[in-house]
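Model it.
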Amino acid sequence: QVQLAESGGGLVQAGGSLRLSCAASGRTFSNCVMGWFRQAPGKEREFVAAITWSAGRIYYAESVKGRFTISRDNAKNTVYLQMNSLKPEDTAVYYCAADFRTDQVIDARWRKYDYWGQGTQVTVSS
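Modeled.
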C-alpha cells in the first residue's frame, strides 16, 4: 500500500524559508509523477509543483515560480519542496501526492492524483 508522509511545515515570518519533505513507500516509484498541492481555509486545493520521478521533469504554478524548488532523492524515495521568500498568501496545508498513470506528463489537476499524504501546515506571518 502506498504511503506518503509529509514533514517540515511550521511557522515562519514573511521572507523566510522552509523545506518540506515527502517520504514515499509501499511500491516502486520509478514511473510516476510526484506533486505538491496546498489548500488554504475556504479555498480550493491548488497545484504548487510536480516532478516526474524518472526524468526529473518539473512544472511549477506561476504563483511560486522562482521562489519554490521541487526535487527528489531516488535513493531515499523522498520528494522535497524548498520554499524561499515565503509570503503570507503561501499559508496553507501542503500535501504531497502521487500520480501513477504516467511519468511523462504532469497533470496539475489534483483529482488526477491517486495517493495523498496527510498534509503539513505552513503558516507565514506578516
